[in-house]
Amino acid sequence: MLSESTQQMQMMILVMQLLQQLMQQLNQHQDPTNQAQPATPLSLSQTEQSILQSSFGDTKTTVAVLDGRNQDGKLTVGDTLIVQNSAGQELKRSTLSSNDMYELRFRENMLKNGLAIETGWEFTDQLVSIKDAALAQPELRQFTSANGLTGTERVLERNQFWEVVEREGNRYLLMRTSNDQNQTVQASDAINDLFDHRQAYAFDCASPMSVLNLKASLDTIGADDFNRNAGQLMLASWFDQYDASQFDGGYIAQVRTAEAGEININGIRNLAGETALFDPSKGDQLIPGNGYYFDLPGDNSSAVQGWNALYLGQTEDGHHQFWSSSIGKINVDFTNNSYLTTGQLSGYYLGAVVSDPNTTRLQAWDDDGSVVR
User: Fold this and answer.
1) Where in this protein does the record put region Disordered (predicted)?
2) Which of 67, 202, 242, 290 is the most exposed place for a label (fewest CB within 10 A)?
């Protein structure tokens, strides 16, 4: 049997061990590095707030974002988006995905570039034109299109970055592969020249939306990735060289059309095939950085039959602001929430045409994943 003194010694050792364990646990609870940090609300830029509010909320709610587990202090994949009512009660929450971030950054760049170029480009009913750059005699040459078709094209106009070519009666702005000094032309440089020297180019009202798409893509993913993926650029109205639709300007376009006579503005009714009236109850959303279309009822052939526009957002006094090439910034009011316009575009209506970012293409072109890092 153990002596009484030995038993007392063992009891003391056991008590000391227990005290040591308790002290370690207490220190761990007091160490802030071992405690779960409360989620921190992110401070969003005005543009980020406007885009997220329109994408996930409405006029009766407020959108906020909590920093994710990485606590990096900036808007990134994995952050928590919360929609609250006017009383501050949470209605729903979601986690920002890669797709959300590509949409956000693309729309940011659409807004930045649209505002930076003021009235944009001079209007022409020839679709595309390089001003004061006509060749003395058109050049004939063979071409092979992206889908493998071959034919003869006429080169009509040329500068250091672009040519205007005519294929089967249609005019296109085609990027040169090399300039007059036999230097390789990069897609990023060709796009930037359209913005840096706007006075040298003229477009119809649709081509600028395709140009803005490419510029926003460039600014979103960076020049290196853009140049690796864009290939030889080709522009004309809504023509899209990269997909089978070939007429969406590089966006994911949603269009609804109306039956003849559905829309009546001052006694003028729409023709069959013109766009339906914009209608939020059918899923139409006004999101800053998206493309939209103002339609003139009863006109499907003239140069003013409609205006393509970039939505900039809503002002504090209730005006909706749009940007359109050759016009610039426009304040639009809608009568009785009907999406029939008053003011500068009086007589037009906002059509059910919504051009969203093509996030699948953006992600495929973003080789280094810089948008979501």
Assistant:
1) 29-51
2) 242
